[in-house]
Amino acid sequence: MYASLGEVIAQRAGITNLGVEGCMLAGACAAYIVAAETGSPYLGIIAAFAAGGLFAMLHAFLVVTRGANQLASGLALMFLGLGMTAFFGRPYVKVQITPLRDYAIPGLSDLPYLGSVLFHHDVLTYAVFPLAGLLWWFVFRSRWGVMLRAVGESTESAFAVGLHPARIQYAAVTFGGALAGLGGAQISLAYAATWVENLTQGRGFIAVALVIFAMWNPLRAMVGALLFGGAVALQLQLQARGVGVSPLLLDMTPYLLTIVVLLVWAQRGRDAFPAGLTKVFRGTG
Amino acid sequence: MTVATQARARLRGQPPRSGWLVGRGAVLRFGMAVTVAMVAFGLVLLSESTNPLGTLRVMWDASVGTEFGRTEVLVKVIPFGLCALAVAVPARVGLINVGGEGQFYVGAWAAAGAVLYSGLPGWALLPAAFVAGATGGGAWAALVAVLRVKGKVNEAVSSLLLNFVAIQFVNYFVYGPWKDPRGPNWPFSPKFPDAAMLPTVYGDRLSIAIAFVAVGLVAMFLVLRYTRIGYHARVVGGNAVAAERSGIPVGRYLFWALVSGGAIAGLAGMAEVTGIQGRLRPGISVNYGYIGFLAAWLGGHRPLGILFACLLFGAISVGGDSLQLALGLPGSTVNILMALILFAVLAGRKNRTQVRA
Fold first, then answer.
1. Residue B67 has what pLDDT?
2. Residue A9's closest CA among A124, A157, A130, A144?
């Protein structure tokens, strides 16, 4: 969820980061190492934010300053994340940490059925919902958001009206990576509460798919993430009741749905695509 | 020289996006990038008090330094090279195929299906697997192509997304209908009969599929340079609007370029199951599709460049396997080196100027 929110911001500035996976891994691993060394998962969260941001900054440097190919740089970042975290994380594979505590919200968590599902989580999970709202406000209702979107549509015109596209892109990509780092931390500190090589297992790519699915809107990304997450939960339920749907086939649905969404708007000629991005995907970027 | 011949000369010489591994000074620039990356990699190793020179020594010995190692490098060149071709062919008409990974899986799946369930006699199994692998990969890419040509859906996005669908698709079969009934309940298909294994040309592991790579690279060179199809393809890649105006059926070129790319990636999958694995299982591709993408990009989408890039990545990857055995480091440590080389190249390349603050 964090990862897709971060990617929304970066792509709004016209930069795709296929290295989200790398940022998430960096965040997950850094969080775990710091949590294991200091005993505090909260310091781990800070480390994850920093590590994800640093990784993304590398991408920003190559793409913005050196004008490098975004897809190639992003994929390279993914491989860097795989390698670095495998290398530095190895001594911690069997180390235990204090995971983030789950907090029950008094009263609400006792509600039947939904209570324990909705109101019994770690702080990172709670924080993501207000964050989505905040980012929505930021992108669509604030001055900075206008600047961000302007850069995403056309760096040239943004430059012409006196903005600093490069600075804005740096900030957006770095912030996006930092959020992806938090997403990684949520997995290593709370969800899995353990570290193994390649912990995130392609979740970074789901984030990229989600961003498109959500048409670059933070709130919709949230809803999409819940839907995709819901598909996973539904799977477990179905399996438990012995319904013969293969969970593997259900795993495909997020990707297929995203393609359908793409197809639908391509037909309507609607274009929520930040125009700066189409350049990348048409190969001129 | 008329304008037309000038244009033609340009088309003959330079692809629209020229690569980094070509042109004057390429060797020098590339050597510098690799050196910078090696030093940075050494610093990373040092920070965990691993001896960098010793590590590089082990990698060298395991890959380029011995005959066995050199063979292993070529074994890796098979999937890397085919996956890179799968990217390079569509790239020449201006399309970005990030779907090599998925096309690889579907090709492997189709080849396995042909071997295990077609009921053909032994001698026909390999040709059937070949055709099935190419058809499978091609059909998977055709989905992307139809979405692009008819549905105007961006091919980079849809091919990337379909990778994950393909992986789940293969998983479905190996965990379900195709699981070996006599196996120890692992998600493996039954073992292929010996008749369905590609003959080896050198040692125990280098299969004849290395010839697919060679033929593919040479064919790409010849078609692009000497045929009308190749000429048209370059025009489409250079300026699709101009191509359309001059009567070239652009849509058809886009479609077939993607499909042939997919078919080549499918062959890579076929070569993996019939040359190395001998069965279908999850995770048959270790990011081959993405490595192929990077190799094609590094090689400037040109045959010779691709070959060098694949040899380099092959050596790094074989070296990585040795680290695990010799030094107990995780095998994916070498991903750091690979990424660093790419970063060095990306950062060192002269790029188009940008609006800058």
1. 79
2. A144
